[in-house]
Amino acid sequence: MKFQDVKAAASGRWPEIVSSLSPFDLRTALDARGRKHVDCPVHGESSKKPFRVFKDFAETGGAVCSRCGNFADGFALLAWLNNCDAVEAKNQVEAHLGLSDRNTEISVRPAPAPASKPEPKAPTANPTWARRLAQWWSEALPLTSPKSRPARSYFHRRGLRGITNWPEVLRMHPALDYFESDDQGSLTKLGTFPCILAAVIRPNGKIATLHRTYITAQGLKAPVPAAKKLCPAATDEPLGGVAIPLVKPGEVLGLAEGIETAMAVTLATGMPVWAAISDALLTQVTIPDGVRRVVLWSDKDQPSKSKPEGAGAYAASVMKDRLGAMLSVHMPPMVIPPGEKGIDWLDVLNQHGSGCFPSTTQSHTPDSNRAHPQRLFRRAS
């Protein structure tokens, strides 16, 4: 289809389109609705917040980053976020909207020979964050270390009790500074805290970035505005496909949004479950070779303007389109309490126990991971 036709169909739906197709989280920018600048979704936190969407973003999809450039419409924005050209961005939007060229005349001329694809662009390093991520990870301790007691206490307090073997992708840094920025982009240090680090892994096995959970020495969430943060990546390569692989997969792999949610499902059912960090990244997790069945343990979220069915349900529908019969979806059975943004399977475990989890016996093969989820993750006897 022509650009103008796809553009007309996308008008009014750009928040939904970009949230679905981009691996980066733009919720902070979308919530601001162009009233203020926020951190760049690609390059992360900085002393000066450079990014904002335009006030007419729903209609145009336009945005600007004082560091990265001006993006006049949603096609230009997606091309930047997904590291592709405008034509590919248009094709992605067209496919997302389910559009087709029904009125295009069929040509009787032979089709031209396909052009050779250009070599993929090599990722550009982000030296500052590459060094910082490597340093933090090397300084962090395994959760089995006696000095990692605050991290173990945190998971215990969250309801994840009795774990004896801890995932190797989780570590605890003994003391990380926490900075918060104001509307003008000025950074203020609010303290130094223990911090749980989770390695976010690309399909090629390399660490893309780190997820941080700031805690106290007693194992509580740190008293800061946002205790959980995703670090900027070490390169500008899109994050699509990444996950936090808490447990080695078998023929069945479970997926969940949050780390604690994934751990709760593994404790309750024995199923190996990976965390995907956000609903946007959840829809793009690369499924490893050998996995024959995927089970999505979805969050149940309140509706929003861009996702009236709720972010968890929307992600489930996107994944169903992508994986088809390979995917099963489980949604928490409880009603979202008044005043809460949503509920997840950790809430189910804490409020009703593992007996409230649906049976997964049909999802497992005879050599299932139920008894020994990689020996990384089991309850104390």
From TrEMBL:
Q: InterPro entries annotated for this entry? A: DNA_primase_Znf_CHC2, DUF7146, Phage_T7_Gp4_N, TOPRIM_DnaG/twinkle, TOPRIM_dom
Source domain of life? Bacteria
**Where does the DNA primase/helicase Gp4 N-terminal Bacteriophage T7-like domain start and stop, copy by copy?**
35-75
Q: Where is the composition biased (Polar residues)?
A: 356-368
Query: What ranges does the record list as Basic residues composition bias?
Result: 372-381
Q: What SUPFAM superfamilies does the database record attribute to this sequence?
A: Zinc beta-ribbon
Q: Where are the transmembrane segments?
A: none
**Location of region: Disordered:** 107-126, 356-381
UniProt keyword annotations, A-Z: DNA replication, DNA-directed RNA polymerase, Nucleotidyltransferase, Primosome, Transcription, Transferase
By what name is this protein known?
Answer: Toprim domain-containing protein
Q: Which organism is it from?
A: Spectribacter acetivorans
Identify the taxonomic lineage of the organism of origin.
Bacteria, Pseudomonadati, Pseudomonadota, Gammaproteobacteria, Salinisphaerales
